[in-house]
């Protein structure tokens, strides 16, 4: 979205209130003023688009995960506990691009633990998941988005869905995270027996992929 530089003469009290609100929201003065004017004049800003997307995500996953407060409109973080000894926490963080082109944003998944065993299990699951998703994308003739796996951390690009509204985009992200979290929890609940659950989980993912490529 194109931006230009303009000069505005504003009251000191207005600027003070704007700066205080911008600090609370984790944004800049100019960006907050832009949002206020856009809302007043019924213009759509990236922040409005991202809020609508995240609203749809929260509608889907809000009952099964803890949503964390964010200071950035481009960020949404969710947490949940795994059914494993000491109930380690796993977090899902979605960061959206202000002006998406090929990629809508990035999903990051991290496990909070100092246990090497847990970290190894996390990495083992996502090595399987990456291989599986790559195969599913190849089967429908789509390019799998870029991803990275390091010690206890997984990051994957989210593709822009062709022709999807903000609400539908949020639904696609929410369904993907729900599907991924279901597979993660199943794996950690019984790592050695995951193979007997994998076919049904893979079937559910394939059905989702026919609705949303993200």
Explain this structure:
The protein folds into 2 domains: 1-43, Orthogonal Bundle (Arc Repressor Mutant), CATH 1.10.1220; 46-211. Helices cover 49% and strands 18% of the residues. It has helices spanning 12-25, 29-40, 46-61, 116-139, 166-189, 198-211; strands at 66-68, 75-81, 89-96, 103-112, 147-150, 153-159. The protein starts with 11 loop residues before the first helix and ends with a helix.
The N- and C-terminal alpha carbons lie at a distance of 22 Å
Helix and strand string, N-terminal first?
A: HHHEEEEHEEHH
Rg, alpha carbons: 20 Å
The quaternary organization reads as single chain
Overall structural class, as computed from helix and strand content, comes to alpha+beta
Q: How many structural domains are formed by the residues?
A: 2
Give the integer mean of the pLDDT values: 88
What is the number of E strands? 6
- Helix segment count? 6
Question: What is the general shape?
Answer: globular
Low-confidence stretches: none
Main beta sheet strand tally, sense and closure: 6 strands, antiparallel
Strands of the largest sheet, in order across it?
1-2-3-4-6-5
Q: Helix coverage percent of residues?
A: 40-55%
Q: How much of the sequence is in beta strands?
A: 15-25%
């Amino acid at each position: 979205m194109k931006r230009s530089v303009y000069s505005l003469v504003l009251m000191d009290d207005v600027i003070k209130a704007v700066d205080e609100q911008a600090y609370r929201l984790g944004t800049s003065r100019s960006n907050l003023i832009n949002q206020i004017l856009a809302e007043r004049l019924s213009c759509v800003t990236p922040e409005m688009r991202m809020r609508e997307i995240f609203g749809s995500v929260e509608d889907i996953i809000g009952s099964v995960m803890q949503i964390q407060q964010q200071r950035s409109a481009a960020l949404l973080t969710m947490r949940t506990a795994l059914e494993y000894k000491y109930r380690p926490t796993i977090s899902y963080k979605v960061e959206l691009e202000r002006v998406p082109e090929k990629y809508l944003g990035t999903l990051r998944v991290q496990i909070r633990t100092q246990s090497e065993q847990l970290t190894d299990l996390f990495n083992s699951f996502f090595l399987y998941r990456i291989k599986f998703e790559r195969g599913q994308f190849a089967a429908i003739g789509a390019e799998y988005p870029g991803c990275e796996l390091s010690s206890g951390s997984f990051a994957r690009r989210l593709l822009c869905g062709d022709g999807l509204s903000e609400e539908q985009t949020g639904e696609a992200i929410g369904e993907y995270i729900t599907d991924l979290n279901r597979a993660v929890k199943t794996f950690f609940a019984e790592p050695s027996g995951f193979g007997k659950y994998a076919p049904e989980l893979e079937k559910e993912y394939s059905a989702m992929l026919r609705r949303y490529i993200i």
